[in-house]
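Project standup — Tuesday

K.O.: blocked on the structure for the chain from last sprint. Re-posting the sequence here as requested.
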Amino acid sequence: MRIGKRELEPGRPYVIAEAGVNHNGEIGLAKKLIVAAKECGADAIKFQTFTVDEIVTDDAKQAKYQAENTGVEESQAVMLRKLALSYEDFRELKKYADEQGIEFLATAFSIPDADFLHSLELPAYKVSSGDLTNIPFLRHLAGFGRPILLSTGMATPDEIRDSLAALSPQNEVVLLQCTSEYPCPPEHTNLRAMETLRSEFNVPIGFSDHTEGIDASVYAASLGAVVIEKHFTLDKALPGPDHKASLEPSELKELVRRIRATKLGSLQIPEILLGTGVKAPTAEELATKKLVRKGIASRRNIKAGELLSEENIFIARPEGLLLPKEWPNVLEKHAARDIPKGTSLSWEMIQ
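H.V.: unblocked you, prediction finished:
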């Protein structure tokens, strides 16, 4: 499997500097992140591309870590609007990354976002842990025929199996061991789960690292991760949900250096980071899952008897009662009663 010009192989991980939303909605800061990631030796810089009104209901609550790290209690929609860049911004950033000589990647959070990124001819697509169960979205991505990097935070093996089944057998996939805690404590890192994923699903594995520091990523490289993703910021003191769990440039540079110097199986790994190898969500992840995974919700006010279609329902945070896999079974049904905008749907509302 390749991403751009780079072959993915154990012993030589593909290092992604995950800028995410650490540009704080400022394209100038995003460009500085691109330059810094290149100077640190990362293979790619990655951002998050989202259209707020397509991915979250207006009153969806923040995850606990988001409220704690921002110091502000507000809806996800309000927070995300402060952190959004436009499609034209991303088009400019892709060109800028090309000029700097570093691969540009992005996580899409909706089908329109994915279609836009496809127009940029990205070499691969990243799927966040929150969209692992978004089956219609995964099927859409599969049609692009590019490698998919799939984070597995909050996931069970059965959920991962369903996600892989939604993709085409021709799709190349890397499963990333991930714990959706920010920061992730050492005892929840569970590096052994990489081998669980590799043996269970027979695909290459990687590590999306939310721990503090760089050791866990280096150990993951020793265990055969072909992709290492680590949050990256210019300054941990900046406001925003992800800066505190990110590396600054000096740390990212050291991470890349140590990963490049690490040979397969060469390191004695602390048991606390290895964990049990059982792929199961932590208690903290179960709480986060309800807020950052998606379900089927009303896009606007819906009258009783109205036909349900893409015009009045959508797949959005929070998770709710009807999961995205039920999308084909909900379309073309009718509302059993009036449904206010932003309501998570249940079968009782549908006839």
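K.O.: great, moving the ticket to review. The chain has 14 helices and twelve strands. Residues 2-288 form a domain with the TIM Barrel fold (CATH 3.20.20.70).
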